[in-house]
Design brief:
Elements lengths: L1 E5 L4 H10 L5 E6 L15 E4 L6 H11 L2 E4 L6 H10 L4 E4 L5 H17 L4 E8 L9 H14 L3 H4 E3 L13 E7 L6 E7 L4 E7 L4 H14 L5 E3 L1 H5 L8
Helix pairs in contact: 1-7, 2-3, 4-5
Bound molecules: nicotinamide-adenine-dinucleotide (NAD).
Length: about 250
């Protein structure tokens, strides 16, 4: 299968190009705004993996939809307006979108949903994430996925209970809040912890990425899976065959 990597000059893009070697996926277009890279993909491309910048997404996804080719979105920080273009395009092509393509984090989503359902609202839920100093958006897409998985497990609407960081006279913590906190520094590839803090015990579920290979391998697998599928929005959990796919 002939594919394009968008964001090919970046940290993830380089890893994707390297890992694609020796698979059934042949990278024929390395798309990036950086010098020496392709400005667009060639006509023979059958699928796209995009780990670039969210602002580029509406135009790129429209082009892919016109061509009828599968699209894997790794880029995070997508705004609601950009997301609506993605959702529109999914009526015409298969799109896999996930804030995290690693097997471990997708398993974590299952565990967090189960923990939230089991532990109940007397356990306060706090999500923390840490990434390298170059990361451009906060909180991470993965932290949001984890917080949404916790909310879904508890049967509440995340939008109604979400809190992002705290500062000043906050008052006591209201019951039911789900808070997300972002740390930045050094070269950390991606650490995530979901904490369930009760009166007499605390449960913490943590994932630490030790390399970008896990994300890249998952994204390559997602594109192989998506090729030839019916148009629609899919997640990495669909690719892995996990049951409750609505969390993303
Ligand atoms: N979903 C996941 O599993 C996962 C994992 C890691 C990173 N990410 C996300 O992937 C994205 C890239 O991360 P990174 O660490 O590789 O960043 P990076 O800054 O190293 O790379 C991004 C690349 O995109 C290029 N780019 C910017 N605008 C572009 C455009 N309009 N067209 C084409 N290329 C463009 C940049 O020149 C750069 O080379 C971020 O949104 C990050 O949060 C997702």
């Amino acid at each position: 299968m002939k594919i394009a990597i968008v964001g090919a000059a970046g940290r993830m893009g380089q890893m994707l190009c390297r890992l694609a070697e020796g698979t059934s996926l042949e990278v024929v277009s390395r798309v990036d705004v950086a010098e020496g890279f392709d400005r667009g993909w060639s006509d023979d491309v059958e699928g796209v993996i995009d780990f670039s910048f969210h602002g580029a997404l509406p135009d790129l996804i429209e082009k892919a939809a016109r061509q009828g080719i599968a699209y894997v979105i790794g880029t995070t920080g997508v705004t609601p307006q950009e997301q609506s273009k993605v959702d529109e395009a999914s009526k015409r092509i298969p799109i896999v979108q996930s804030g995290n393509y690693s097997l471990g984090v997708n398993l974590l989503l299952e565990l967090v949903g189960r923990a939230a359902a089991t532990l109940g609202p007397e356990y306060d839920i706090e999500v923390t994430e840490m990434h390298h100093r170059h990361k451009k958006d906060a909180p991470s897409g993965t932290a949001l996925m984890l917080a949404k998985a916790a909310a879904a497990g508890r049967g509440v609407d995340f939008g109604k209970v979400a809190v992002y960081g705290r500062e000043g006279e906050t008052g006591e913590r209201p019951a039911g809040e789900i808070a997300v906190h972002a740390l930045r520094g050094g070269s950390v590839i991606g650490d995530h912890t979901v904490m369930f803090a009760g009166d007499v015990e605390r449960v913490e579920i943590t994932h630490r990425a030790q390399g970008r290979e896990a994300f890249a391998a998952g994204a390559l697998k997602a594109l192989e899976w998506a090729k030839g599928r019916a148009p629609g929005m899919y997640t990495m959990r669909d690719v892995l065959g996990f049951s409750s796919a609505e969390i993303g």
